[in-house]
């Protein structure tokens, strides 16, 4: 039993080491990905644009729920006009980056892992290597950067849709004053603390999810089960990484305000 | 023949996979301009041998020399420079599924040359014409039959006019017509381009018709070798088993098992 646990722990640490080395290799070989714009554009299309629908719709609904719950609670203290502050801060600081990243992991991360895993299983990566084209530079790096660049934009769009949803419920349906909603928001949202920290978080989440996805895909066993396991691991590991990283980042970012 | 006449020289090549020896000392010399087949049962290390020649694996011992240079000692950049002169056809083609037939064949040209797009178009269509698929340029790989995919992959492997072309089981899973077509194409393209071809296969009849020389691999060693007519006439039991497709011979039909009497009768008497 002890041996089993030890083996698993060693295995995990070993994989973490592999992933770190892989991360370095991706960074070193990013030249082509960043200088050949069409390559990058294609990946931004696949990771970013194709995730738009789920991000926008989810953002709207999260905003609607925040509006309802927030109004109900703030109402008890007679401060329903602070609804704008509440919705904006919770979205910009936490829900925007975190929920958008979780959705991104399940929509784009899984697709990236599946694509790279299938390319490996059908010997496409080996064929590329035999053609003297480095698969890490040609296949992996553009997908990594595509994810890193898409994530903050998706998170911002998520937050914007959420704020719109909160406004829709609060102002249009529940009768919070329109001016109070927006002015309380403008008065209490700080650009550097709230908006910028949220964007920074989503860049980190984007890098984490993209790295996990390309690593799991590239490292998958070249069989059908191997690929499906890689997809599952991508989503599970990404979700954990996002939530842990969020705690770490939050505790650094907002320490000064407590 | 002097050493200059051999494009590939393999000396005492050994390779272990996970501590288990796969190749135990292979020696072979592949002359320039010829089509050479490497044969053996499934899982005998034929494909491993190809990957060692291409530098995708490093040998445990021994050496692989291509055009006089040791592949196994090359660093990454040098190896990649060398691979531009090698083409490889993978077992099921390994076409890039997100690119059309045209873009697949144009891929090596676009990655390795600065040619203008019109010239890439002409070169690509010439390669496709050589395999009879100029009309299929706009199809995606999932719309191709097995034989067509193999031909597109062949056009792609030939795109940079390589000096050495390697084929990993080019006949697997093809109907007899496609199989004959691929066999003739390999021969014709090899002779027309002055390249050298190494083909890993277990299709004896097709190979005997088209290759210049055959190596038989068994248990990690070269068990027999010779030109097709020598192979047909060979009295070697292993070669005979292969050529006549007998189930039993030096290559056993049964996986190693305990004695039959002990296995069946022993249990009944417990």
The second-level CATH architecture of chain B is 3-Layer(aba) Sandwich
| Number of continuous helical runs of chain A | 10
Low-confidence stretches of chain A: none
Helical proportion of chain A, percent range: over 70%
The low-confidence runs of chain B, each spanning 5 or more residues with pLDDT under 50, are none
For the largest beta-sheet of chain A, the strand count, sense and barrel status come to: none
Question: In whole angstroms, how far apart are the ends of chain A?
Answer: 44 Å
Q: Return the string of H and E elements of chain A.
A: HHHHHHHHHH
Structure annotation, total helices of chain B = 10
Number of strands of chain A: 0
Largest binding interface between chains:
A-B, 16 and 22 residues
- CATH level 1 name of chain B: Alpha Beta
Which word captures the global form of chain A? Answer: elongated
Rg over C-alpha atoms of chain A, rounded to the nearest angstrom: 21 Å
Structural class label of chain A: mainly alpha
Number of strands of chain B: 10
The helical percent of chain B reads 25-40%
- CA radius of gyration of chain B is 21 Å
Question: What does this molecule look like?
Answer:
The complex is a heterodimer of chains A (258) and B (270). Chain A is mostly helical. Chain A has one domain (2-257). In chain A, 86% of the residues lie in helices and 0% in strands. Chain A has helices at residues 2-28, 31-35, 37-47, 52-76, 83-121, 124-130, 135-173, 178-188, 191-219, 224-253. The mean pLDDT of chain A is 92. Chain B is α/β, with parallel strands linked by helices. Chain B has one domain (3-96, 164-179, 190-268): P-loop containing nucleotide triphosphate hydrolases (Rossmann fold), CATH 3.40.50.300. Chain B is 38% helix and 24% strand. Chain B is built from ten helices and ten strands. In chain B, the strands form two sheets. Chain B has a six-stranded mixed β-sheet with strand order 6-7-8-3-9-10, sandwiched between helices. Chain B has a four-stranded antiparallel β-sheet with strand order 2-1-4-5, with helices on one face. In chain B, strand 7 (164-168), helix 6 (176-193) and strand 8 (196-201) form a beta-alpha-beta unit. The longest helix of chain B is centred in the last third of the chain and has 18 residues, at 176-193. The mean pLDDT of chain B is 85. The A-B interface holds A 115, 118-119, 122-124, 126-134, 138 and B 54, 56, 80-84, 86, 88, 90-92, 94-98, 107-108, 111-112, 153.
């Amino acid at each position: 039993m002890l041996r089993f646990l030890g083996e698993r722990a060693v295995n995990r640490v070993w994989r973490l080491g592999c992933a770190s080395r892989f991360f370095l290799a991706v960074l070193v070989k990013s030249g082509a990905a960043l200088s050949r714009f069409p390559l990058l554009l294609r990946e931004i299309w696949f990771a970013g644009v194709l995730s738009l629908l789920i991000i926008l719709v989810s953002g709207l609904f999260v905003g609607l729920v925040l509006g309802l719950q927030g109004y109900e609670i703030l109402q008890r203290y007679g401060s329903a006009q602070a609804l704008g502050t509440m919705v904006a801060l919770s979205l910009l600081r936490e829900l925007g980056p975190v929920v958008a990243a979780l959705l991104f992991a399940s929509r784009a991360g899984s697709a990236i892992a599946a694509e790279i895993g299938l390319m490996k299983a059908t010997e496409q990566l080996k064929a590329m290597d035999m053609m003297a084209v480095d698969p890490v530079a040609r296949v992996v790096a553009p997908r990594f950067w595509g994810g890193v660049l898409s994530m903050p934009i998706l998170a911002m769009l998520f937050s914007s849709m959420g704020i719109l949803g909160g406004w829709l419920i609060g102002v249009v349906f529940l009768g919070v004053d329109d001016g109070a909603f927006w002015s309380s928001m403008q008065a209490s949202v700080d650009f550097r603390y709230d908006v910028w920290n949220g964007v920074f978080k989503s860049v980190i989440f984007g890098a984490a999810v993209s790295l996990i996805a390309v690593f799991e895909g590239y490292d998958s066993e070249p069989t059908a089960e191997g690929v499906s396991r890689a997809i599952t691991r991508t989503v599970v590991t990404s979700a954990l990484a996002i939530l842990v990283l969020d705690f770490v980042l939050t505790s650094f970012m907002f320490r000064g305000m407590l | 023949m002097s050493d200059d006449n051999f494009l590939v020289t393999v000396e005492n090549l050994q390779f272990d996979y996970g501590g288990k020896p796969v190749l135990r000392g292979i020696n072979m010399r592949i002359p320039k301009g010829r089509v050479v087949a490497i044969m053996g049962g499934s899982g005998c290390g034929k494909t491993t041998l190809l990957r060692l020649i291409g530098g995708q694996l490093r040998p445990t011992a021994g050496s692989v020399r291509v055009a006089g240079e040791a592949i196994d000692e090359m660093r990454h950049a040098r190896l990649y420079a060398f691979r531009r002169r090698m083409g490889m056809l993978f077992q099921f083609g390994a076409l890039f599924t997100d690119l059309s037939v045209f873009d697949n064949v144009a891929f090596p040209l676009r990655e390795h040359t600065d040619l203008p797009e019109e010239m890439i178009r002409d070169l690509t269509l010439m390669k496709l014409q050589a395999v009879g698929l100029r009309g299929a340029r706009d199809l995606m790989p999932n719309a191709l039959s097995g034989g067509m995919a193999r031909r597109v992959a062949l056009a792609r492997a030939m795109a940079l006019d390589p000096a050495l072309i390697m084929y990993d089981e080019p006949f697997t899973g093809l109907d007899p017509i496609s199989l004959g077509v691929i066999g003739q194409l390999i021969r014709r393209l090899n002779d027309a381009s002055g390249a050298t071809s190494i083909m890993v296969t277990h299709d004896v009849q097709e190979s005997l018709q088209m290759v210049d020389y055959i190596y038989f691999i068994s248990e990690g060693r070269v068990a027999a070798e010779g030109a097709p007519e020598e192979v047909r006439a060979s009295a070697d039991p292993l070669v005979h088993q292969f050529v006549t497709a007998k189930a039993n011979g030096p290559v056993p039909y049964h996986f190693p098992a305990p004695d039959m009497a002990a296995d069946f009768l022993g249990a009944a008497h417990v």
